[in-house]
Specification:
Elements lengths: L2 E7 L7 H14 L4 E7 L11 H4 L3 E2 L5 E2 L2 H9 L8 E3 H14 L9 H17 L12 E6 L9 H14 L4 E8 L2 E2 L4 E2 L2 H12 L6 E6 L5 H11 L6 E5 L7 H7 L2 H8 L12 H12 L3 E8 L9 H13 L3 E8 L5 H6 L1 H11 L4 E4 L8 H13 L4 E4 L1 H13 L6 E3 L8 E6 L13 E9 L5 H5 L5 E8 L1 E3 L4 H6 L3 E5 L6 E5 L6 E4 L14 H10 L3 H5 L3 H4 L9 H11 L5 H15 L1
Parallel strand pairs: 1-6, 1-7, 2-5, 2-6, 7-10, 10-11, 12-13, 12-14, 14-15, 15-23, 16-17
Antiparallel strand pairs: 3-4, 8-9, 17-20, 18-19, 18-21, 21-22, 22-23
Helix pairs in contact: 1-3, 1-9, 4-5, 5-6, 12-19, 15-16
């Protein structure tokens, strides 16, 4: 029988249940168990696809095209698995499935009610999805970690709480372990850790028929001994099963906190797996967490976006940058720039904000323009791409970031001042970016080009192909409605913009490069969704390598440039520069000028 670990939350939202659930999975996986994960979101939306990042953070995209909660991104990154859209359960999905059954007559004339029909549907969904292998191996996992979104007591989560109560009773205590996450605040006036909110939360949880096996207490610092004893007494939980999840320097320390407090032993005991599991082997994980804290040499990346006031809106992008920075032994410094602050309108209305934004942009090592929707800040993103192109600053454009780079190139190099995307100007005379042929303008949910799609490299020795280890093609996840206009490709390529990656039809542009630039890359897909700790995304790694002046020693130069040092027509000084280039001793400024020279010779 499948073993279940339920992670619930109390007192307030935003306590980090997703990171804790992921960390529990990491520890259990390190004990030799196979783990899968399910996220329950009690909102009525069918999925997260139509939700604003301001409402719920980023929309995470899966291989099968599922648009899901960002916590599934945490699960995939921590556990290195590939989940499905059904691993994210919403109220909308459950009610839709029950209504569809009712319309077909599956309930044979019965009155359809929350209990038993909705609660049965929830349990059936959980048990079905828990059996789907997500780690590339055959057969179901050993343990399914379920995260219940929201907080205990929320009216919208009541059907799920009742369904989980029924599930726990049906599968038995030896197959179900409940971890309750609660806040232990400190009242600043007295400096004392307060247990009353947690006591009330556990009391409410018990009132719904769910009994916690483990209590995970969120706090600024470790729980004091008397506080843990008090919680044990009033919440009827053994003191050894009360964990303190305090603030740490980076979230990779959370699995180590669980291991050090023997959380795995409490969970394994609750699941009757004590004799079937090994001691947790987290040496590599610990080394990565410690290395991340030790880096002192910074790499400064400007994030030019629309939702810069909420970091969760770009969570996967931030994690991909972190993975790449750790790989390069650099301390990541993200400089947030609101795209609107770079625009001329801001210069008139708020000159201080305008000047500050441009000062930051001019003093970074690399520029990244992430995906997004809507026309707010688009001109600022175009100006950021223009600055990167003209000043040889490493640039990575993702989805919209690639599209605006094409628009900027058409305006500046081709002289097409009306060049634009039809997303922002439907009547533009020069549509560089157009609505995809199969898209829908009447239904927004699930109608984009979504999920894993294949991109074929058109140029074998381009930088991006080298970053992907000379692969002939690459599979990455997509989420977009607008694409580069294929009718514009010939003009753009003749002017020097190279479309080095296309789909199987050759009509969809997937990757752009500027050969005369040290690193100017745009991708239509979202490579951040497949980045993992210890397995950074290739293009993010390329950005960080370029920003630190180490790109060429990592990605390998095209054959033509590699062979330049052997050409007798080159001066001794140029040969010396190329050799310095290849062994990594050249400075960034020298690499920039040398790359331009190299491409001039190749051309």
């Amino acid at each position: 029988m499948m073993k279940y670990v339920l992670v619930s939350g109390g007192v307030v939202s935003g306590l980090g249940k997703g990171v804790l659930a992921s960390s529990i999975g990491v520890v259990l996986k390190s004990c030799g168990l196979r783990v899968t994960a399910i996220k329950i979101d009690p909102y009525l939306n069918t999925d997260a696809g139509t939700m604003s990042p301001f409402e719920h953070g980023e929309v995470f995209v899966l291989d099968d095209g599922g648009e899901v909660d960002l916590d599934l991104g945490n699960y995939e990154r921590f556990l290195d698995v590939k989940l499905t859209r059904d691993n994210n359960i919403t109220t909308g999905k459950i009610y839709q499935s029950v209504i569809d059954k009712e319309r077909r007559g599956d309930y044979l004339g019965k009155t359809v009610q929350v209990v038993p029909h909705i609660t049965d549907a929830i349990q059936e969904w959980i048990e079905r999805v828990a059996m789907i292998p997500v780690d590339g191996e055959k057969g179901p996992a050993d343990v399914c970690v379920i995260e219940l979104g929201g907080t205990i007591g929320d009216i919208e989560s009541m059907p799920f709480v009742e369904a989980l109560r029924q599930l726990s009773n049906r599968v038995g205590s030896g197959n179900f372990c409940l971890v309750h996450v609660s806040l232990v605040p400190v009242v600043s006036a007295v400096g004392e850790q307060k247990t009353k909110p947690t006591q009330h939360s556990v009391q409410e949880l018990r009132g719904f028929g769910l009994v916690p096996n483990i209590l995970a207490c969120r706090s600024f610092k470790p729980l004091e001994g008397n506080v843990k004893e008090k919680l044990s007494q009033f919440c009827h939980i053994p003191a050894n099963n009360i964990l303190t999840i305090y603030d740490v320097s980076n979230i990779w320390h959370i699995p180590l906190l669980l291991r050090d407090q023997k959380a795995h032993e409490a969970i394994l005991k609750g699941l009757n797996l004590i004799g079937d599991a090994k001691k947790p082997a987290l040496e590599q994980w610990a080394a990565r967490a410690e290395r991340c804290d030790e880096f002192s040499s910074p790499v400064r990346i400007a994030m030019v976006g629309k939702y810069t006031g909420l970091s969760d809106a770009y969570l996967s992008v931030l994690k991909a940058l972190l993975h790449a920075s750790v790989e390069c032994s650099r301390k990541l410094v993200v400089e947030w720039i609101a795209a609107t602050d770079l625009e001329d309108a801001t210069a008139r209305k708020a000159p201080d904000a305008y000047e500050a934004a441009w000062n930051v942009l001019k003093n970074v090592d690399g520029i990244l323009v992430p995906g997004g929707f809507g026309d707010r800040g688009v001109q600022g993103k175009i100006l950021a791409a223009k600055y990167a192109r003209e000043n040889q600053v490493p640039y990575l454009g993702i989805c919209l970031g690639m599209q605006i780079a094409v628009v900027e190139f058409a305006r500046s190099i081709l002289g097409l001042q009306d060049a634009n995307s039809t997303e922002f100007d439907p009547d533009t005379k020069c549509p560089c970016v157009i609505f995809m042929p199969e898209g829908s303008k009447t239904h927004l949910g699930g109608t984009m080009r979504l999920g894993s799609r294949r991109t074929y490299f058109q140029v074998a020795d381009c930088i991006t192909a080298k970053l992907y280890k000379n692969a002939r093609y690459v599979d990455e996840r997509h989420r977009h409605r607008y694409e580069v206009n294929p009718d514009m490709i010939d003009k753009l390529e003749c002017a020097g913009l190279s479309f080095v990656g296309k789909d199987e039809s050759g009509k969809r542009m997937e990757i752009i490069e500027l050969p005369s630039h040290p690193f100017f890359v745009g991708v239509q897909f979202h490579p951040e969704f497949k980045s993992r700790p210890g397995k950074p995304s290739a293009v993010f790694l390329g950005l960080i390598r370029a920003a630190t002046g180490e790109l060429f020693t990592h990605a390998q130069l095209p054959t033509q440039i590699n062979n330049m040092a052997a050409k007798s027509s080159l001066s001794n000084g140029m040969q010396a520069k190329i050799k310095a280039f290849m062994n990594g001793s050249a400075k960034s400024s020298l690499k920039t000028s040398l790359f331009s020279n190299a491409n001039g010779i190749r051309t």
